[in-house]
Amino acid sequence: MNNPAQFPNQRLDLPDAPVTAQGKGITGMEYKIIGTTLQAVILELDPGETVYSESGGMAWMSNNIDMKTGGRGGGLGGALKRAVSGESLFLVEYTSQGGKGMVAFASDLPGKIVPLELGQGQQMICQKTAFLCAEKTVSMDVHFRRKLGAGFFGGEGFVMQKLTGPGVAFVCLDGEVVEYVLAPNQILKVDTGHVAMYEPSVAFDVEMLKGFSNIMFGGEGLFLATLRGPGKVWLQTMPTSNLARALQPFLPNKSSG
Question: What average pLDDT does range 102-131 have in this prediction?
Fold first, then answer.
């Protein structure tokens, strides 16, 4: 590796992060997703193009990107609904001015950034913390599960996120991602934390485990999610809650100083 003090105008010979996906949005925005485990998405915007994210989502940007923080969509009611659901109260718009601009958003945990190319009116239901950023044409709203069992015992309460096209949105899913296509009335049973995303045509509910030994000694919790087709579902291999439980024994506590 070159000594940066000896060659101040040269790059360090560090390998570039691999590009795992790239494409273009309907507004002209170009994107590339870099990295494998801790990924980031880098967006290139022409003058006047706008993307948005939740407050605190941006990682880096060029000097000609203008930031504007507000409620964006739904007015005060929309902002309050996001706050009640545990989401960020404000959303931030990033607009390129005076030339091509660049803004990047990074994942907080090991996993995958998934680009969703949504058509006009096409929707996707995602876990509550999934949304990373999107073109300005994409609508992001709170999705409340209708069934009581799914709401109380579904791992994330009543609340998920609903993204509506047209446009490209980016979501962060935990660990590796597995995709299934369910036929009509085909059922997939899943530990609730592993449900990352599904199409609105898929029916989501929660059922209690059967059998005393399963409940007492199964180690899977009392409830399983049932996903009924038709439609696509995406499962994640490492839910954040599982990661937190795995790390808990190794974290210092107050009694240990």
Answer: 94
